[in-house]
From TrEMBL:
InterPro entries: Prenylated_rab_accept_PRA1. Belongs to the PRA1 family. It is a multi-pass membrane protein. The chain crosses the membrane at residues 58-76, 82-100. One of its GO terms (cellular component) is Golgi apparatus. It comes from Cutaneotrichosporon spelunceum. Keywords: Membrane, Transmembrane, Transmembrane helix. PANTHER family: PRENYLATED RAB ACCEPTOR 1-RELATED, PRENYLATED RAB ACCEPTOR PROTEIN 1. Its main location: membrane. This is PRA1 family protein.
Length: 168
């Protein structure tokens, strides 16, 4: 491994560790997240908005996992989109790792830039056939419905009453 790769891997590890400490450290217990005894219909739109505002802040890490699961589901159910993403990512990694200088192929000189361009064009065509816009809007819609329903129907806990109170 060269020094650039080691530095990149260290950076990725630091980012993942930071993500785990900050976002996943805020993850709420499933018993609290799925507490069906606190589910009730809000009295009006103002009550819904108040509940949703509090619950979105309180359960933000749990909601991020819901969005990630919806994204994984959308990719799994759209194989052409998944193949396009794997082709693009794998192609760029392959070119950067295995083709560092120009080479001759059937009397033509092929540079790494030519290969990057070819991978990009073919990958974009594959992605377009995989309908990324519909997958994106499905993820946004499904996540919005799930999160909106959960955040608005779940009554905030007792700790929400003390949210604005400062301790000395």
């Amino acid at each position: 491994m060269n020094m650039d790769t080691v530095g990149y891997l260290t950076s990725v590890q630091d980012t993942m560790q930071n993500l785990r400490q900050t976002r996943l450290g805020q993850l709420r217990h499933p018993g609290e997240f799925f507490d069906y005894q606190r589910v009730s219909r809000p009295s009006d739109t103002g009550a819904y908005m108040k509940r949703a505002g509090y619950n979105i802040r309180y359960f933000s890490a749990n909601y991020a996992i819901i969005v990630a699961l919806c994204t994984v589901y959308a990719l799994i159910t759209s194989p052409v989109l998944l193949i396009g993403l794997v082709f693009l990512i794998g192609g760029f990694i392959g070119v950067s790792r295995f083709v560092t200088e120009p080479f001759e192929f059937q009397g033509r000189t092929i540079t790494p830039q030519n290969l990057y361009f070819g991978v990009f064009v073919l990958g974009i065509l594959l992605l377009l056939f995989g309908s990324p816009f519909s997958a994106f809007f499905w993820v946004v819609g499904a996540s919005g419905v799930i999160i909106g329903a959960h955040a608005g129907l779940l009554e905030p806990g007792v700790e929400s009453e003390y949210e604005g109170v400062e301790t000395v």
